[in-house]
Structure formats: structure tokens, C-alpha cells
Amino acid sequence: MLYDPRMVAPMRAELSSAGVRELTTAAEVDAFMADTIGTALLIINSVCGCAAGSARPGVRRALAHPLRPARAATVFAGQDPEATARARGYFPELPPSSPSFVLLKDGRPVRYVSRQMIEGQDPERVSAILVAAFQELAAPAVG
Asked: Domain count of the chain?
């Protein structure tokens, strides 16, 4: 189901105003995924209540942390089906979930936060989950 773009505009702006790049086409997803150097965060956005109350505010808070991924992008489930399907296609081992986050290092998924981990959490807890993952990525490898 596609939602009225006027209704979704503030939901998009909540992330884009925090520096998250919107990917609205499969080609944009492919370009984002082709850059495999460093760290990245891919956000599957949604119109649901847990996206509004927990996921988007949590992401905004986490991205204000000094240890953050070099790049962040989002696709919008229910609004940009082609881009969302393409993004999910890069991670067939991960169950589809909206909202959700995939943290990447050098093009590989290293952390997945599904809706089940977001739903019922406050934005501070969602932010803490993401910041902990950011800190893990920033830590030097042992061994």
C-alpha cells in the first residue's frame, strides 16, 4: 500500500533533516551499496507507530553521537516499494522488518536491529542500541 506523499513528507523530513540520505529508487540503493568503504547505516523507515515514537527519534539521537557511521541512508517501506525491495534484496538472510536498521562495515552487514527490538522501546533505548553498535564498529579489531 502506498501512502499519500503529503502525509509521509514529515516522516521523511525527520530523517533527512538529520543528514540521512533518502533512497527512493533501486538505482539509488545500488549506488549506496556500491560504496563499500567504511561504515554505513541503512534505515528501513515506516509509517507505523514504533517508527514515529521510537525508531526515527532514536536514529536522530544516535546520529548526533560523535562515533557515528560515515554514511546513513533510508528507504521508506509502504512508500518506495522498488527501493525497499532492492535494499532488502542485499540482505536475504535478514527477515524483512519495518522499521529496521542495518549497520554495515565495508559493505557487509554487522548488526541488524529489527522491529521486534524497536517496538515498545523509548527513543533513548533505541539510540543506546545504535550507539553501542557504532562504538563496536569504531573499536580496533583484536587479534
From this structure: 1
